[in-house]
Amino acid sequence: QIEKNGIGRPKGYNVSWHSNPDIEKHHFGHAHPMKPWRLTLAKGLIMSYGMHAAMDTFVSRQATREELEDFHSDEYLDYLKTAKVAAPIDDIPVDFNLGGSDCPIFEGLFNYCSMYAGASIDAARKLCNNESDIAINWSGGLHHAKKAEASGFCYVNDIVLAILQLLRKHPRVLYIDIDVHHGDGVEEAFWSTDRVMTLSIHKYDGLNFFPGTGDLDRTGPDSEENPGAHHAVNVPLADGIDDEQYVWLFKTIVGMCVERFQPTAIVLQCGADSLAGDRLGRFNVQVQGHGSCVSYCKSLNIPLLLVGGGGYTPRNVARAWAHETSIAIGCDATLDPIIPMHTPYRQHFRYDTIFPTLEQILAGENRPNRNPDKKIREIIASVTEQLRFVNC
Ligand code: V1S
Ligand code: CA
Ligand code: ZN
How high is the pLDDT of residue 89? Predict the structure, then answer.
């Protein structure tokens, strides 16, 4: 399989893959859109192509209490560890925003959180000691968690913990978030520093779309004295953006951020709910367009951490993260788009290709593009103006 698909291991270019099958076994509850099982589907696809042979694969470990305390408060971690499993009552969260229907308390919750956090921390360390050029944790990317609060299916913020690791060695980290939701937890954590620039592209509709933040003029602290001023970049979009516009916007804005900020490491949150046909998302981005964002970041030749995030139509999440793994290891051009016959749960994919057409993905649903080119150009102009104030 490996030879047939031409998957090789280019000398001197290392990709590490951090995962743990334990994570996939957790359940948020029957009706909950977050399904850790999507990771099993993604892993099956990645392995059926033989891609694991081209990476350093690591079974990740739980983050230690000390590591979690790098960002989270003692009281919050105590509560998270001891919280008793309970079905949400009338959608009302109790302490620390836990126990409502968004962030239920389920069996093995603390184990789940420590595991996905451990994987992102390990991945960041591989980049710090130059053992990896790209490190991947598809179980991470849980960007809404705050210091002492769960939010939007996220309990522990593995991205913040990974960036804190990177900052031990790297002077400047660029965080890029292509999840359809605003990366509010990461933005808030690094709001007052000029060592991390956060960039989130997301659906924004005032308060109507979760989490209700991420307007274009949210650029950092108001005071010019605060080092974090101008270091938060927000790209709010309307429903239905397509590949052409999204990739153009992504390359233009990321290109400008890299030029001004000169990051020495990049973290790319690859939330797959920005894909067309997502159960919670609103965009018309395809697997190809989503993957182009990864290709572009790889082409910058800066140490790169890839994490997962949202993604609520499991077959498309698996397609995207398998395709993005192939980009990381450099075999995307030679990968057979027909899903191998021996792929586990192959019947779940509905169509047998990694790249279904928009018509197949949307299955008759019509999601018009509400993003005129003029609006996209205005966003670019506004970010250009913002970045004039960034010096490194
Ligand atoms: N959109 C949305 C959505 N759907 C749900 C949900 C649906 C069924 C359930 F059984 C449980 C929850 N919650 C939401 C959003 C949260 C979205 C989180 C996205 C996370 C990420 O992809 O960015 C990263 C992993 N929550 C809300 O909209 C809040 C409510 C306001 C409405 C929904 N109810 C269930 C909770 C309160
Ligand atoms: Ca986002
Ligand atoms: Zn999301």
Answer: 74
Q: Which of 90, 102, 317 to mutate to test the pocket of ligand 1 (most atoms within 8 A of CB)?
A: 102
Q: What is the ipTM score, two decimals? A: 0.98
Nearest listed ligand to the Cα of residue 308: 1
Task: For residues 276 and 241, give the distance between their C-alpha atoms in angstroms, rounded to a whole number.
Answer: 9
One-letter amino acid of 241: I
Secondary structure (3-state) at 235: strand
Exposed/middle/buried for residue 364 (C-beta within 10 Å: 0-12, 13-18, 19+): exposed
Q: Regarding the domain delimited by 15-387, which CATH topology (the fold level of the hierarchy) does it fall under?
A: Arginase; Chain A (3.40.800)
138 CA from centroid of ligand 1 (Å): 20
Residue 12 gets the label, from left (phi > 0), alpha (psi -120 to 50) or beta, of left
Instruction: State both tokens at 4.
Output: 């047939």
| Dist. CA 188–CA 202, nearest whole Å | 16
Q: Which atom of ligand 1 is nearest to the CA of 102?
A: 12
Angle between helices 109-128 and 158-167 (to 10 degrees): 30
Q: Tell me the per-residue pLDDT of 188-240, one tens digit each, with 9 for 90 and over.
A: 999 999 999 999 999 999 989 999 999 999 999 999 999 999 999 999 999 99
Q: Which residues are catalytic?
A: 182
Residues paired with 17 in a beta bridge: 57, 136
254-300 pLDDT, tens per residue? 999 999 999 999 999 999 999 999 999 999 999 999 999 999 999 99
Residues 6+ apart with CB under 8 A from 207: none
